[in-house]
Design goal:
Order of helices and strands: HHHHHHHHHHHH
Number of domains: 1
Protein name: EamA family transporter
Number of helices: 12
Number of strands: 0
Keywords: Cell membrane, Membrane, Transmembrane, Transmembrane helix
GO molecular function, one term: transmembrane transporter activity
Distance between the termini: 26 Å
Radius of gyration: 18 Å
Main location: membrane
GO cellular component, one term: plasma membrane
Helix content: over 70%
Largest sheet: none
Structural class: mainly alpha
Shape: globular
């Protein structure tokens, strides 16, 4: 059962990038697509966490501060993610998301008194090399451009912030109040994206809803289920198995989809960067 849940988590991880890319293609040329995407995604996620909280919920006032931080970082992540998918390759965008693990590792060295090992240092170096290869390996005027890199970095920083806030909350309260933490985090994030949507350009909102409302809602549900599955697997499988398998497995599925479904072509240097990125994720997650 544990490995079945793990396999579903890998599938859900890979599917999020693919669904986001397809949403962009269905709404090419329309305005306000990113704000609509995030609003619907977070609505789906809130519904899942609300159901989960009905099963187990314990309120803790101090955890609200962590939820607020996570919610802000998650909104930043999803905004950068959908805009990066719109401007660059699906595979490289997914890789950048996974490489944000470096933020948690460095933060741990500085603030959590975690010891740097030779393997973790190698992992960090490989992250840098991977980023250089992926960015500098592009063709002039190709899909992977500086606009893509800017949005990918927003996603990168936001996702690193999510990981740091989430782990800080778990360390502060011995892993308790997880459902309450995630529910209020998603509500805060939904509030942020709702403001962004209502102050933004809503010219094509009805057309987007009619054609593709299901895609972001499904992504939000898959994201929430994957996070809940990770919580379940924490008691069933070693973290040294769970995190690398989900991260690298999701990357592989996304890379296959970018080739087979979206017909994206990466240069040899970028494929090398993808490979080194997978290795670095394994090293940083395990060690």
């Amino acid at each position: 059962m544990a490995y079945f849940i793990l396999a579903l988590s890998v599938l859900f991880m890979g599917a999020q990038s693919v669904i986001g890319a397809q949403y962009n293609r269905l709404n090419e040329g329309r305005r306000g697509t990113a704000a609509m995407y995030n609003l619907l995604l977070l609505s789906g996620a809130v519904c899942v966490y609300a159901v989960s909280s009905c099963i187990q919920f314990e309120f803790h006032a101090q955890t609200l501060w962590f939820s607020l931080g996570f919610g802000a970082c998650f909104a930043l992540t999803q905004c950068g993610f959908i805009l990066a998918l719109k401007r660059g390759p699906v595979a490289l965008t997914s890789l950048m998301m996974q490489l944000s693990l470096i933020g948690t590792v460095i933060y741990g060295f500085i603030f959590w008194d975690e010891k740097a090992t030779a393997i973790s240092v190698v992992g960090l170096v490989l992250v840098v090399i991977s980023l250089v290869l992926c960015l500098c390996g592009q063709k002039k005027g190709g899909k992977a451009n500086w606009a893509w890199f800017g949005f990918a970095m927003l996603m990168f920083l936001g996702n690193a912030g999510c990981s740091i806030v989430q782990k800080s909350q778990q360390l502060a309260y011995d892993g308790n109040y997880k459902n309450m933490f995630m529910l209020f985090a998603m509500i805060f994030s939904l509030s942020i994206t709702a403001v962004m949507f209502f102050v933004g350009d809503k010219t094509d909102a009805v057309a987007i809803l009619r054609k593709s409302w299901f895609y972001p809602v499904l992504t939000g549900i898959l994201n929430a289920l994957m996070n809940l599955f990770v919580m379940i697997m924490a008691n069933l499988l070693p973290s040294s198995v769970v995190y690398p398998v989900i991260s690298v497995g999701g990357l592989i599925l996304t890379a296959l989809a970018s080739l087979l479904l979206f017909k994206e072509k990466l240069r040899p240097a970028q494929w090398a960067g993808m490979g080194l990125g997978c290795v670095s994720v394994i090293l940083l997650a395990v060690f």
